[in-house]
């Protein structure tokens, strides 16, 4: 939202929150991953704007020991994007796995061999719903044994 006015914002159908005096942005926390509607409106009643955004989340670690907890690693929040791609790399940049967010996820192996406990990096390519543009997000996670 641009221009002069007093604005308030909400996520999905949540409560409205106003900007504090002199602030130009607002932070919402503890949101679940997935497609969210960010709503903004002028308090004076001059209209409302709704923009859909993708909130992506991922486990900071996983433990592929077949105990039923954290056995696979995957991106959270874009399983409905069939054209999204996730790439997992070792610390040297070697591609270990390509997967889809709708797949069961990575089991911690490469060519059938168990990978060691270590940090691994990933990139995810997805489509931002509000613009339709292809986006990329990169970060890392830990495989614990």
Helix/strand structural class: mainly beta
Strand percentage: 35-45%
Sum up the overall morphology in one term. elongated
Number of domains: 2
Q: Extract low-pLDDT stretches.
A: none
β-strand number: 11
- Helix percent reads under 10%
Q: Kindly identify the CATH topology of the largest domain.
A: Immunoglobulin-like
Q: In sequence order, what are the helices and strands, one letter per element?
A: EEEEEEEEEEE
Put simply, the count of helices is 0
Roughly how many Å is the radius of gyration?
19 Å
What is this entry, summarized?
With 145 residues, the protein is an all-beta fold.
Q: Can you tell me about this structure?
A:
With 145 residues, the chain is mostly beta strands. It has 2 domains: 7-54, no CATH class; 57-143, Immunoglobulin-like (Sandwich), CATH 2.60.40. The protein contains no helices and 11 strands. The chain has strands at residues 7-11, 17-18, 34-42, 48-55, 61-62, 85-89, 95-99, 109-110, 113-114, 118-127, 134-143. The protein has a 5-stranded mixed sheet, with no helix packed on it. Strands 2-1-3-4 form a 4-stranded antiparallel sheet, with no helix packed on it. The radius of gyration is 19 Å and the shape is elongated. The termini are far apart.
SSE map:
Layout (H helix, E strand, L loop, with lengths): L6 E5 L5 E2 L15 E9 L5 E8 L5 E2 L22 E5 L5 E5 L9 E2 L2 E2 L3 E10 L6 E10 L2
Parallel strand pairs: 5-11
Antiparallel strand pairs: 1-2, 1-3, 3-4, 6-7, 6-10, 8-9, 10-11
């Amino acid at each position: 939202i641009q221009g002069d006015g007093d604005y308030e914002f909400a996520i999905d159908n949540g409560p409205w929150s106003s900007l504090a005096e002199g602030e130009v942005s607002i932070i919402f926390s503890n949101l679940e991953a997935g497609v969210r509607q960010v709503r903004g409106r002028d308090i004076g009643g001059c209209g409302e704007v709704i923009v859909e955004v993708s909130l992506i989340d991922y486990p900071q670690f996983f433990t592929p020991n077949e105990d039923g907890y954290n056995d696979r690693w995957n991106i959270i929040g874009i399983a409905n994007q069939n054209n999204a791609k996730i790439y997992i790399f070792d610390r040297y940049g070697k591609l270990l796995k390509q997967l889809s967010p709708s797949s069961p996820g990575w089991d911690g192996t490469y060519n059938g061999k168990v990978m060691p406990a270590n940090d691994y990096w990933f990139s995810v390519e997805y489509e931002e719903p509000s613009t339709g543009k292809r986006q990329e997000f990169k970060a890392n996670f830990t495989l614990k044994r």
